[in-house]
Amino acid sequence: MSRIRSAAIDAIYDSRGSPTVEVTVELATGASGRAGAPSGASTGAHEVQPFPPGGVSAGIATFRSRVAPALVGVDAADQASVDAALHAADGTSDFSRVGGNPATAASVASALAHAREAGRPLWSVLARPGVEGTKFPAIVGNCLNGGRHAIGGPDIQEFIAFADAPSPEESVRAAIAVHRHVGEELHRRYPTRALGRGDEGGWVAAIGNVEALEILAAACAAVRDELRTPVHPGIDLAASEFFADGKYRYREQTLDTEGQVGFVAGLVDRFGLRYVEDPFDEEAFDGFARLTRAVGDRALIIGDDLYTTEVARLERGLAVGATNSILIKVNQVGTLTDTFRTVDRARAAEQATIASHRSGEVPEGWLTHVAVAIGARGLKCGVLGGERVAKLNELLRLGRATSR
Ligand code: 2PG
Ligand code: MG
User: Fold this and answer.
1) Candidates 157, 240, 332: which one to mutate for ligand 1, based on the most atoms within 8 Å of Cβ?
2) Cα–Cα distance between 284 and 296 in angstroms, integer?
3) What is the Å distance from ligand 1's center to 336 Cα?
4) Largest pairwise CA distance in the chain
5) Closest Cα to residue 289, out of 248, 321, 249?
6) Which residues are catalytic, by number?
7) What is the pTM of this model?
8) pLDDT tens digits, one per residue of 296-321
9) Could you confirm whether domain 138-403 is CATH 3.20.20.120?
């Protein structure tokens, strides 16, 4: 038994400088765990509410008055009970009274306290049936930012290095090398322009979508040669962000669904993309299915805003063959138990899972443990910036712990 003695909440800042919360859960035995919650910018319409209508301060007040008392006495070793207590204290279907971020922080902090008391790593107390923690995810590392995560960059939100080496060391090294190559090439092409970095630590440059892909694909090819390691280009289009009135509106072109299928399938073949996230609007299950039929044998087609880690939306996608992969973000649903319900369904349906950060992150490593616990195909956590490197470094530690 690991009964919760107290749960305390406080305001902290995320990597964008926006306020969020962290929760500290203390057990009767004295063991404790603390976790912060990240925040998205390109959020899916079907995510839970990150904070109640009054914002962070209202979330903190509600947590103190309603949630903390409800958690006292609950067994932290029983994650389902902890998360049921969070839902009961909230009482809404979208966590709009308590906030999905306070709920996420409490759910993870409780698991951390339990892991600490049990003397086990977090991933091992969370491991899904059949996951042994000896297979590590590929790194999904954002090297060039656009869309909502960058001012003045391309329309496509993320240009990604998908580093799929046998060991965490090699994957991390490759992702960092691609990021460096991209920066060097941007500087070589535009020597007099200032270069910046976006919300997720990738480069930002005033270039078009196709030029960004040319630079990314060349960087991946160079690193494959140099390090003899499998690293391939990928993108997160976050297409809902530039979809309006039934059309995909890029700066250079406007496409209907048919045109978008052809355009993205063409990019997969031209650049050898292995990773394609949210290539259509979040309600366009049919567009996803058409692309998956066309290129799903050679690229992961991933639903993020499409599914928002929600099992009912995943069922809709499975029914039509929308994707072969699903992005997993705990704060899209608010608790570990809700997350694992979706993960277990995805695994049963042989959908690959990608555990993901948010664009506004906290400098903590718990996401890496979630990735390992669910047997994720990928850990999407960016490349540079302390809050991104924290997750990569945690993966290095877990890799070393198993190879010892
Ligand atoms: C995404 C995420 C993270 P945000 O779209 O996948 O990369 O962005 O956290 O802004 O939703
Ligand atoms: Mg996304």
Assistant:
1) 157
2) 17
3) 19
4) 63
5) 321
6) 200, 329
7) 0.98
8) 999 999 999 999 999 999 999 999 99
9) yes
